[in-house]
Design a protein that fits this description.
2 helices; 4 strands; alpha+beta; Alpha-Beta Plaits
Length: 93
Amino acid sequence: MPRKLYLAAYDVREPRRLARALRVIKGFASGGQKSAYECWLTPAETAELERAMRGVLELEEDSFALIPLNPRRPITPLGVAIAPTDPAYFYFG
């Protein structure tokens, strides 16, 4: 199943929830920094990420956005940034 590139961004107010949100995102991310991460996701992985974040966040206080990026538009990295690529496989370990 083909993967689509998303930008996952969050703002979590409480440190314990912030640490949990970071662990969830890093389980899906291929790159990023601070509270914005690039994620190549299948539809099933997209649903899993959303479900996992709902379980971590306090929806009255925190925010999370999963933004699909247009594959027809070029990504312009600046500085030491590396353009995201969809590798043949991902290793999570």
